[in-house]
Specification:
Elements: E1 2-4, E2 8-10, H1 14-22, H2 27-30, E3 35-42, E4 45-50, E5 56-64, E6 68-73, E7 80-90, E8 93-102, H3 106-130
Antiparallel strand pairs: 1-8, 2-8, 3-4, 4-5, 5-6, 6-7, 7-8
């Protein structure tokens, strides 16, 4: 299953955007209002839970400066990645698009598709005010 957020344009350079997203503590600022738990586990791993959903642990798996950050599932039954693609528009402007990629059986995919799509859209939208 592959989902993507709309692109968001930020009044920050690609380097500033990359640095913000590289610090996993900042993901708490991007979370939806219905977050029930957020906990930094170490420098590159955090746990979060949305109301009515199980806890999810994400770990930074890859970071290509000013271009891409990959967060992946750290444990649990589902294997997936959340990828932030950063594009430099000019010295003071960048664009970000989030992709969600995971392999799920049909039943699980049907259950999580809409909540995950809404989740990544919220993360992207919140970047406009938080980054």
């Amino acid at each position: 299953m592959k989902l993507e957020s709309p692109k968001v344009t930020l009044d920050k350079s690609a380097a500033e955007t990359f640095n913000f997203l590289s610090d996993i503590k900042n993901f708490e600022k991007l979370m939806p209002e219905n977050i029930s738990k957020f906990e930094v586990l170490d420098n590159d791993k955090f746990l979060f839970a949305l109301k009515g959903m199980p806890e999810i642990v994400l770990k930074k798996k890859e970071a290509i400066p000013n271009n891409k950050i990959v967060l992946g599932a750290a444990g649990g039954k589902l294997d997936f990645a959340l990828i932030a693609h950063i594009t430099e528009i000019n010295d003071n402007t960048s664009e970000v698009k989030l992709n969600f990629e995971g392999e799920f059986n049909t039943m699980i995919a049907m259950m999580i598709k809409n909540p995950i799509k809404k989740f990544i859209e919220t993360l992207a939208t919140n970047m406009k005010t938080e980054v």
